[in-house]
């Protein structure tokens, strides 16, 4: 995501003028009503988010299965309840989360006890110094995925050391390491501070195209902040991920990498599909800027070079040092040394 703080610079004004012209050309060619319609597209059921259910409703009624020969889970899970009650007032303890999720195995692995899952999803979370956010996420995400009757595993990709944070590279590491464990159908690239609000937002991939899930976040008044937005929560099949050569490894610090990924999707001949706005509801835990994740001043330069660089900067050039892989009670912790930003890189603190 790009927070523009360069208003007033001539190049910025030039870009602005160019975007205005582009906007009018697109309006002329596609018709304004169509454009605004797609910005606020709300498909299917009309969800009422003032009527919410507890995320653990019915889940604790589970008992172990009596047989090993399980039938496939139904195409649509009978456990879905719709809008969920999400609050960040109390931070749940790991002990409490563990108690509420008795079927989650070490490493944050879950298999439905009563039916054979139709789908295998890996959740990859880039992380450093966000333990409180992680607890909120684990508290809500485990039951959320269990309601969907998925076979899943939650991975935390933890950046070791104090060098500048690199979200995109951590996710590349997550993809490579998680695929060593299992042939996942779907890879979720998930910010630690985003909680899905509706369990009908199924954590499965689109078979053909990369998919954006956090289409309506509270921090953006439940709308898309801009047309090509791809930050927050997205998912790809391993094939789609490899086709775009994964994420760029060269974005150090905050911003830009999600836009680069959106570009890559297009360069690879794919497109982004999105969860409808009335289902893709998310709450973000409010937070300040992290130390070590200052705004990346090089992001605009990198974005300009993206068409030339995407084939050589990504999964095919990924280098890292795996420090440890530990099976924690509620997740798999992959601690990794992703290196450091090149020395000439200057960053400025976000306000
Ligand atoms: C936006 C995007 C995010 C990403 C980022 C730019 C949303 C909701 N999300 O997030 O996907 O594109 O802009 O890089 O718009 N993190 C840590 N420790 C840190 C720093 C970051 O764990 O010290 C992880 C964590 O998973 C966090 C994610 O990186 O959720 C994104 O960083 P952020 O939350 O600081 O940035 P934000 O909310 O502006
Ligand atoms: Mn955030």
TrEMBL record:
<dbReference type="InterPro" id="IPR029044">
    <property type="entry name" value="Nucleotide-diphossugar_trans"/>
</dbReference>
<dbReference type="Pfam" id="PF13733">
    <property type="entry name" value="Glyco_transf_7N"/>
</dbReference>
<comment type="pathway">
    <text>Protein modification; protein glycosylation.</text>
</comment>
<keyword id="KW-0472">Membrane</keyword>
<protein>
    <recommendedName>
        <fullName>Beta-1,4-galactosyltransferase</fullName>
        <ecNumber>2.4.1.-</ecNumber>
    </recommendedName>
</protein>
<dbReference type="Pfam" id="PF02709">
    <property type="entry name" value="Glyco_transf_7C"/>
</dbReference>
<dbReference type="GO" id="GO:0005975">
    <property type="term" value="P:carbohydrate metabolic process"/>
</dbReference>
<keyword id="KW-0464">Manganese</keyword>
<feature type="domain" description="Galactosyltransferase C-terminal">
    <location>
        <begin position="211"/>
        <end position="287"/>
    </location>
</feature>
<dbReference type="GO" id="GO:0046872">
    <property type="term" value="F:metal ion binding"/>
</dbReference>
<dbReference type="InterPro" id="IPR027791">
    <property type="entry name" value="Galactosyl_T_C"/>
</dbReference>
<keyword id="KW-0328">Glycosyltransferase</keyword>
<keyword id="KW-0808">Transferase</keyword>
<dbReference type="InterPro" id="IPR027995">
    <property type="entry name" value="Galactosyl_T_N"/>
</dbReference>
<keyword id="KW-0812">Transmembrane</keyword>
<feature type="transmembrane region" description="Helical">
    <location>
        <begin position="12"/>
        <end position="28"/>
    </location>
</feature>
<keyword id="KW-0325">Glycoprotein</keyword>
<feature type="domain" description="Galactosyltransferase N-terminal">
    <location>
        <begin position="73"/>
        <end position="206"/>
    </location>
</feature>
<dbReference type="InterPro" id="IPR003859">
    <property type="entry name" value="Galactosyl_T"/>
</dbReference>
<comment type="function">
    <text>Responsible for the synthesis of complex-type N-linked oligosaccharides in many glycoproteins as well as the carbohydrate moieties of glycolipids.</text>
</comment>
<dbReference type="GO" id="GO:0000139">
    <property type="term" value="C:Golgi membrane"/>
</dbReference>
<dbReference type="GO" id="GO:0032580">
    <property type="term" value="C:Golgi cisterna membrane"/>
</dbReference>
<keyword id="KW-0479">Metal-binding</keyword>
<keyword id="KW-1015">Disulfide bond</keyword>
<dbReference type="GO" id="GO:0003945">
    <property type="term" value="F:N-acetyllactosamine synthase activity"/>
</dbReference>
<keyword id="KW-0735">Signal-anchor</keyword>
<comment type="similarity">
    <text>Belongs to the glycosyltransferase 7 family.</text>
</comment>
<keyword id="KW-0333">Golgi apparatus</keyword>
<keyword id="KW-1133">Transmembrane helix</keyword>
